[in-house]
Amino acid sequence: MKRKVTKAIFPVAGLGTRFLPATKSIPKEIMTLVDRPLIQYAIDEARAAGIKEFIFVTSRGKSALEDYFDNAPELESTLRKKNKTDLLDMLKSTNMDSGAIAYVRQNKALGLGHAVWCARRLLGNEPFAVILPDDVIAAEKPCLQEMVEAFAETGGNIVAAMEVPPEKTSAYGILDIQEEKGPLVHVKGMVEKPAEGSAPSNLAVIGRYILTPAIMQNLNRMKSGAGGEIQLTDAIAEEIAQSNNVYGYRFRGQRYDCGSKAGFLQATVAFGLARDDLGPEFWDYLTRMVAARKAAQ
Ligand code: UTP
Fold this sequence. Notes:
single chain, five-stranded mixed β-barrel, two-stranded antiparallel ribbon, 10 helices, 24% strand, binds uridine 5'-triphosphate
């Protein structure tokens, strides 16, 4: 099997209920960290990893996402006339080439596994990446790039993994570790949201995956049987049983759960502080605010 990964699936068909009422009309993935939509961070990470084909699994009410990746001729010509070349370059960097991007529809939110399965006809018999744009990762070397390189070595399914405190394991898919090989962890099991005290480790799966076509075959079977949510974790766990070919990858970097309000706020502060144009003023403001709150206690 080919070990070069050039296709990525972005499942963006979820309802985003944790961000209501905003998500009544704005796709969650368009919400901004400072001035860039979440989806832009995901696209930049995928591009850095060598992804050439971008497959979006969308749903009703997500047309703002499609517009976002299109050329904006009026805006571009206005900026050109005003000689605003910096803004123009920035705007152009968000355009996607014709044919590089494809949209498939998930007509019912039946779960992440089902969303990935919806893209099956666009994948062929190739390995593919899955990126959840809710998980934003600040890292020196982009997480997906590290994973793509690890895949070129191992050829196995790889899920991004990070340590979480024991009291948080029940919120994640948790890996059962067979063997540690540096950042790569050979996995012998995977449990979705284990009950407190029963997690096999504190290594949690987060939203980056490199998957082999076998996973799609597992999802195919699940589609025909199951009526409820179809979990990607189940299809990967099945692959452990069948081929013992699943790894966790301990990436280096800070992950923000931008699907939750607290995570989104933390990411906003971190990305705001990291900006040359905003950081110093923002830092001044935050330190004054913290001092005022302490004094008031
Ligand atoms: P979440 O579990 O965060 O669900 O999905 P959600 O609907 O986006 O948000 P809440 O929980 O209601 O606030 C994780 C990822 O899987 C996608 C979502 O778009 C998100 O990127 N997803 C989930 C689908 O594409 N389809 C689904 O049926 C479920």
